[in-house]
Amino acid sequence: MAPPHWWTAGFWPGQLWLLYQDTKDEAIRNIAEECERHLDQVITDFIHLDHDIGFMWTLTSVARYKLLGKEDSRRRALLAANLLMGRFNVNGNYIRAWNPWFEGDENTGYAIIDCAMNLSLLFWASEQTGDPRYKAVAMRHADVILAHFIEEDGSVHHIVHFDPETGERRAFLGGQGYAADSAWSRGTAWALYGLTLCFDYTKEARYLQAAKKVAHFFIAHLPDDFVPHWDFRIPDDVTPYRDSSAGAIAGSGLMLLAEKVSQTESGIYAKAGNAILKSLYENYGAWDNEKEDGLILAGTSHYPEQKGIDVPLIYGDYFFVEGIARLRGKSEFFW
After folding, report:
1. Which of 73, 179, 183, 230 has the fewest CB neighbours in a 10 Å radius?
2. Neighbours of 41 (CB within 10 A)
């Protein structure tokens, strides 16, 4: 079990809030609210909070505020947004990813593609407060994604290392992908969905065009059953494990993208998103395994570190449930 400060802490309560919308089950609501309260100590006492503040409080506090209008959740979410904005490096216009995890660890210049999904917390905060600073920071980081993370073919880098003093790009790093120049599938999914959200908040066409470019790369590299391998560029001698979580993230993101493009284009993305979610349901569901707590099998968390390989992942489960909610025509989501 992960500790409460781990980046995945929001996905279980987020999933509960998705279910609560349909059921109005007070037992589900109570558990989701308890999860949110557990994060109060994390936000004040844990020194290693990082860019994933967005994942944690968007799916807990923003979700509860959107559904129930509770002011204590709004305050929590705005506090989280301020902490996230405080990670912005003005020299390079990026949100710093991590703090040092051990003595001697130096990562002040690291930015990662996962943060594309965390930007929605800043956009939301600007809308709530009328303060443009949050939106400005989110857009500057998004523009760094366009300039440094996305290649011409639509593939995406996981980690970009910048000089924290000058802002100049130093290197690409492999991170959770196979190599610095490979194409980690979950990172591709984060970019696809995150940039679609950037367009949704700003209506700036450059974010939509980038989201479409990444989506085309993702769709073109899917295997026959539409569920991606953990990296789109791995050598033949590396086991091609699937990453169902990448599929679930992209599936929901593609459904949103289909809503934001012209009617002539929307079918491309809706068809692909539907195919991914359908395959996850039919081929990777754990419905018949009473010993399995997860919903979707065959996730790959971190292949280079040999962690969480061929297992269910809570974020894969969350985005699968979210994707099904999109297919069912739900309109209230938390990003």
Report:
1. 179
2. 11
Which phi and psi angles does 94 have, rounded to 5°?
Answer: -130, 155
Per DSSP, 302 falls in state E
Residue range 117-133: mean pLDDT, rounded: 98
Distance CA(268)–CA(208), nearest Å, equals 15
Structure tokens at 16: 């509960």
Catalytic (active-site) positions: 52, 114
What's the whole-number mean pLDDT along residues 43-54?
Answer: 88
Distance CA 326, CA 324 (A): 5
The SS3 call for residue 226 is: coil
Nearest CA to 282 out of 256, 257, 247, 313 is that of: 247
Q: How far apart are CA 175 and CA 186, in angstroms?
A: 12
The predicted pLDDT at position 102 comes to: 85
Which two structure tokens, joined as six digits, stand for 164? 């924290």
H or E, element range at 175:
none
What is the topology classification, in CATH, of domain 7-327?
Answer: Glycosyltransferase (1.50.10)
Model confidence at 74, pLDDT cuts 50, 70, 90, reads very high
